[in-house]
Design brief:
By secondary structure, the protein is mainly alpha-helical. The protein has helices at 20-44, 50-72, 78-109, 120-145, 150-187, 191-195, 200-227, 237-257, 261-268; strands at residues 3-5, 10-12, 270-273, 280-283.
Length: 294
């Protein structure tokens, strides 16, 4: 199988032949949900989901790379491997950025700034910065792996592990902040939270579900890289599809259905998709105070 070999050890790109039907299926599935997200953004201008959409395109291209790897088996090339590995590794960090920005919008839409541990504008900046840091570290690790030697691959793996750890820690803190806001809002709801028509409880539940899916996936990849190139997880392809592919597809579909355009419309006016449906509604401008977070 394709990889890097020295007299002492071998780094295999894959320790199995990637399934062509499975990779092709996820190219189609990610293409469909990403195309729908593109349409939803174009109609509602919900730009906070732009990172998620970019991540969807990364996933789609990544699985195209996996198809190439399947066709190359057993003589895998570094280019196809890196295309698949890098894009599917980094895409969830882009999903996370959209989730972070959604919480800031929910807090502002309910006039809940006083109930949040961190001001919405700072919350978005803090967690997106942490997300970018984790993304940069993972990307840097992947870049080290392209140097081509066995030592470079192992060094790159350690850097990727550090980036995944940053992402997991950031998610843990984010969920804590969201839970504190949730509990405080349920205990002492603001007037706007009950009068605005915003179902903030369902919106938070969507963020919790999305966060949990990305968290589980990130822990899986962290354990996978920690086990090394001869670990049990990396030897069994089904674990990748169960704990990465399916979970990330679920995140994309979740926000297709529970699209946060209504939160943006409540703050700025404009079009939004009704929850659980595809009817577009025009909302009047009813903007709260404060600056707009991106």
């Amino acid at each position: 199988m394709g990889g890097i070999q020295t007299s002492a050890a071998v780094f295999e790109y894959f320790r199995y032949t990637p399934s062509l039907p499975a990779a092709a299926a996820f190219v189609v599935l990610f293409s469909l949900t990403t195309a729908l997200h593109t349409y939803q953004i174009a109609r509602t201008r919900t730009w906070i989901l732009l990172p998620l959409v970019i991540g969807g395109y990364c996933e789609t291209i990544g699985y195209i790379g996996r198809i190439l790897c399947s066709l190359q088996a057993p003589n895998f090339t570094m280019g196809a491997y890196l295309l698949e590995n890098l894009l599917t590794l980094l895409a969830p960090a882009l999903f996370a950025a959209s989730i972070y920005m959604c919480l800031g919008r929910i807090i502002r839409a309910t006039d809940g700034e006083a109930l949040s541990l961190i001001r919405p504008q700072r919350l978005t900046t803090l967690f997106v910065t942490g997300d970018i840091l984790g993304l940069a570290i993972q990307g840097g690790g992947a870049g080290v792996m392209t140097a081509g030697s066995l030592a470079d691959f192992y060094a790159g793996e350690k850097v990727v592990i550090a980036g995944l750890a940053v992402l997991v820690a950031s998610f843990g803190l984010f969920v804590f902040v969201a839970l504190v806001f949730d509990i405080r809002m349920r205990t002492a709801p603001t007037t706007r939270s009950s009068e605005s028509g915003l179902d903030w409880r369902m919106d938070l539940q969507a963020l919790y579900i999305g966060s949990a899916l990305i968290f589980v996936r990130s822990v899986f990849r962290l354990v996978e890289y920690s086990q090394g190139n001869m670990g049990w997880l990396i030897e069994h392809e089904w674990t990748f599809y169960v704990f990465d592919s399916v979970l990330m597809l679920a995140v994309m579909v979740l926000f297709n259905v529970l699209h946060p355009s209504h939160v943006k419309a409540l703050l700025q006016g404009g079009r939004y998709f009704e929850k659980g449906g595809w009817r577009i509604v025009e909302a009047p401008v009813e903007k709260t105070g404060g600056t707009e977070d991106v």
